[in-house]
Amino acid sequence: MDAFALQAKAVCVEFPGVKALDHVDFSLMPGEIHALVGANGAGKSTLMNVLAGTNPSYGGEVWLDGWAVELRSPAAAKKLGIQIVCQEVDQALAPALSAAENMLLDELGRPGRLWINWRALYQRAERLKDQLRLGFDLRTPVHRLTLAQKQMVLIARALHSRCRILLLDEPTAPLSAVETETLFALCRDLVQARRLAIVFVSHRLPEVLRICDRYTVLRNGRLAASAPITPQTTADQLVAHMLGTERKPVRAPAFRTAGGNLLSVRGLSSRDGSVQEVSLTVGNGEVVGLAGLVGTGKSELCKAIFGILPRAAGEIWLDGSPVALRGPADAAALGMGLVPEERRKEGLFLGESVSFHLGIASLKKWSRLSFLSRRKLEENARRQIERLGIKTPSPGQAMERLSGGNQQKAVVGKWLAAGCRLCLFDEPTKGVDVGAKAELLQLMTELAQTGCGVLYASADPGELLQVTDRIYVLYGGRIAAELVTAQTSEEEIMYYAVGGKAPFCPPAQREREELP
Question: How would you write 445-471 as a 3-class SS string?
Answer without folding.
Answer: HHHHHCCCEEEEEECCHHHHHHHCCEE
